[in-house]
Amino acid sequence: MGSEEVVEEPTPKTPNQTTTPETTSSSSPRKIKTNTPTENGHVSVTPTTLSIVQPHSLLPKPVPPRTTYTQNDVVVSSTTFGKFLRKRSNDLSSAISKGISTLKHSINDQNDNNGVTEFNLSGLKVFVTVKNKNDASSNSLARMKISFFSRSNCRECCAVRRFFRERALRFVEINVDVFAEREKELRERTGSATVPKIFFGERLIGGLVELNALRKDGGEELERRLKEAGGQGPAAPAYGFDEAEEEEMPEEEIGKVVRVLRQRLPIQDRLIKMKIARNCFAGSELVELLVRHHGYSPSNAVEIGKQLCKKHFIHHVFGKNDFEEGNHFYRFLEHEPLISKCFNFRGATNDSEPKAAAAVCDRLTKIMCAILESFASEDRRHVDYVAISKSEELRRYVNMTQDLQRVNLLELSENETLAFFINLYNAMIVHAIIRVGCQEGVINRKSFFDFHYLIGGHPYSLGAIKNGILRSNRRSPYSLIKPFGTGDRRLEHALVKMNPLVHFGLCNGTKSSPKVRFFSPYRVAEELRSAAREFFENDGIEVDLEKRTIHLTPIFKWYSADFGQERNILKWIINFLDANKAGLLTHLLGDGGHVNISYMSYDWSINS
């Protein structure tokens, strides 16, 4: 802007035309020179002044960007900053939630009291249209305050949820299996803990029976109740707020010992049997530390070491179970290979007293059921993974998976083990799709099935759970080795007898797989049979009587070792077919003719 600007006229330029620069400023009018040839060949210069329109004073002023960056600008180290974020996460979530709530209220107040319909700025005209309250249609009921308390796997709660969704009514659901701290509020407001309990504003409507009664007269009674709704009903669960901590139990003596051992043991890499063992210590060093600094006798120190191994605080570097004094080497659980890659491990193990494995699985299953009830289609064949990733339910689920780290799996019965790992597998599939995504094809999805959890002191991938535990340590398709080798401590949890029905209870997140579902340890065998029947009813098998061909899901091809010979498979399938398909298949198998078996194409796209 420090030099003169020249604007040329759009007329064609002649050889005699010239331009001369002239000084101007950004705040003064701009001068423009036009060159006009005369009759005698001379050029006549005519100055013209144009005024520049400045932006309105009320409009924001542009701010120039920073042009330099130095390391001195960063005054906090990344480690300190990370610790600060973790420490203040709950406060930050609280501030954001309250800020959003305040913003919503302020916007509503402004919309209610806004008397401005038009204002003008120089060169700009803005109109504000205030919606007439009398123009509200029946859809305005969707903005009314509706809330209800629920539990997971509750049929009446599902019916209430379906009732509101069919009428496009927005509602707040408070699942007391997820938000256990809200059960006290449920009792205070209703006098009992039974669900569902529905509120219009602060007024208790009742349960499903009372809601169905409002359908009279074409829903006029429902509309009237909603219009009369007022007051403050149960608040929606806020993201980032954990339930109140239970009363703290006195710290166990072994917990104090572990904390001291982590600080004082000489943890380092060592060469053992021509192999480098990372981050380990000798058993004799642990015993010596307990004897010298804690006053234990050598025999008591060895006994404490055995307890540490049994409770999965430490493990032998080569997988031996019992603790022994001498030249034996151990490492803490957090230093084990693959532990850092487990998605329920956050830099430190959960050192609190492990809860019962069945209780932990039951709580995780209830949370995951609540997630699917809120973010999946009615038939569970379509899952909204994007919405799940932003939900408070998933955040609580991920936090609770840390309770799996040191659970005692040996206390589970055979049926409890079956239900535990099927439910955990299906829950991990949902978590894995959100965290790492998945690719199509059996071979390409190998990395997806490497998604790990730390369970009972050992890392378990999706593949290890399916092929190692549920399939009794059998090779996966296109693999040459078994999941668990000889001496693998996880092998003791593998099912003694493989049940082929597990294939119809496992969902791998694709459109051709069985739908995602969860099982009760007390009815798992019956529920697996029901899952198989439902799978075959929904295009799991097709019978072409004219061509004498049976079209099967490729699951039977990939896992043929679990089902047996093809003809035996067809006889086995008859037990799970409806009368029509069972009759056709029985006819083909009984007339002595040849039966062709064809395998359908598998849809690997995500079931979203």
Automatic annotation (TrEMBL):
DEP domain segment(s): 261-334
Stretches for region Disordered: 1-44
Taxonomic superkingdom: Eukaryota
Ranges of biased composition (kind: Polar residues): 34-44
Pfam families: DEP, DUF547, Glutaredoxin
InterPro entries per record: DEP_dom (IPR000591), DUF547 (IPR006869), Glutaredoxin (IPR002109), Thioredoxin-like_sf (IPR036249), WH-like_DNA-bd_sf (IPR036388), WH_DNA-bd_sf (IPR036390)
PROSITE patterns xrefs: DEP (PS50186), GLUTAREDOXIN_2 (PS51354)
GO biological process: one example: intracellular signal transduction
Bias (Low complexity) ranges: 14-29
SMART domains xref list: DEP
The protein's name in its UniProt record: DEP domain-containing protein
